[in-house]
Write a structure and sequence with these properties.
12 strands; 40% helix; alpha/beta; 7-stranded mixed β-sheet
């Protein structure tokens, strides 16, 4: 049997890095549930699940208190393979001061926010060298921290809850030089994530503006060019029973159910791995806002409009370098 070449081994490691991250939540959830049920129902080791639940209750607020990050976890060589798979690139347009805090607003969400994680939750693309003295906190759904062990895994890379209390803590209780990365489109933006799309779910997303004004922190737009090229999506017939179910499901639990697909482990087969497509995340210039403890809706709307203008400017300046035509525009819904 022929040995794997260095190139084949490199590709295999990259695929493993992507696969383990994309499916780690499912693996952790099913493993934790099955193992603990087995221990309770069929063994004498029921105290182990009890201890786990006690620890979970004791540690419940940690994702809202800055998390539990470890530098060695962000430096794992596994993440280098993860970023090389696409590959990912992080580009800044201006130096920022380590004496301020920032809210980076990341677009678009895509399906699994691969570029956001690789660039801001690991050191594989050189975050600390690009932004010296800045500590990044990737904010995500609080529900991801409900699962024992998985919560510790993702917190080790600097992920925290995107709740209001978490944002308040990071902007007041931590020292300066913090960069909070918020993917404001959220899961609602997934339905717009199709190849070639530049549609952003942003028109009604004003919470990040409110928090920035409350704390007087600068807002920085960031756009990941080609993030929506990683997966295809099956669009069901409008008005059909599956389409109606999707709308009902979204109304009930505020999560958009999408049928997406990528590539498989071998060429020419579909699967759930993302397509290997280069992604460049461009981080724009800070938008300075005043500190207003209780900003009115009028003030929030004013700075939201200024932010959208800055985002459009960033996109238009770089779009032709990364696969979009001169006529392509952002669509804000």
């Amino acid at each position: 049997m022929a040995l794997l070449s260095k190139r084949d081994l490199k590709i295999a490691m990259e695929v493993f890095a992507i696969f383990q991250w994309a499916f780690s939540a499912w693996v952790f959830v099913t493993t934790v549930i099955c193992v603990n049920l087995y221990l309770v129902l069929y063994t004498r080791y029921w105290p182990i699940p009890v201890v786990i639940l006690i620890w979970l209750a004791y540690d419940w607020k940690t994702p809202e208190r800055g998390g539990r990050r470890f530098l060695f976890a962000r430096l794992w060589s596994l993440w280098k393979q993860y970023c090389d798979y696409f590959p990912l690139r992080l580009l800044k347009t201006r130096d920022i001061s380590r004496c301020r805090n920032y809210i980076v607003v990341y677009h678009p969400h895509g399906f699994l926010c691969h570029s956001g994680f690789g660039n801001f939750a690991t050191e594989a693309s050189g975050f600390s060298k690009i932004f010296p003295g800045i500590t990044s906190y990737m904010l995500t759904l609080g529900a991801l921290f409900w699962v024992p062990f998985f919560r510790d895994y993702i917190m080790s890379t600097g992920l925290c809850s995107v709740s209001q209390s978490s944002i308040d803590y990071l902007l007041t209780q931590k020292s300066k030089g913090n960069m909070l990365v918020v993917v404001v489109g959220g899961l609602a933006e997934c339905k717009h994530s199709v190849p070639g799309s530049t549609t952003l779910f942003l028109k009604k997303r004003t919470g990040f503006i409110y928090k920035a004004l409350q704390h007087g922190v600068a807002i920085i737009p960031a756009y990941a060019f080609e993030e929506t090229e990683l997966y295809g999506q099956h669009i069901f017939t409008p008005g059909g029973w599956i389409n109606r179910f999707q709308k009902w499901f979204q109304r009930m639990i505020h999560i958009c159910s999408c049928v997406f697909y990528g590539c498989g482990f071998t060429e020419n087969f579909w699967g759930f791995l993302p397509h290997a497509h280069p992604i460049t995340t461009v981080v724009g210039e800070p938008l300075i806002v005043p500190k207003i403890e209780k900003p009115s809706q009028e003030v929030v709307d004013k700075y939201h409009a200024l932010y959208v203008e800055a985002l459009r400017k960033l996109f238009n300046k770089h779009k032709t370098q990364y696969g979009f035509s001169e006529s392509q525009e952002l669509v804000i819904v």
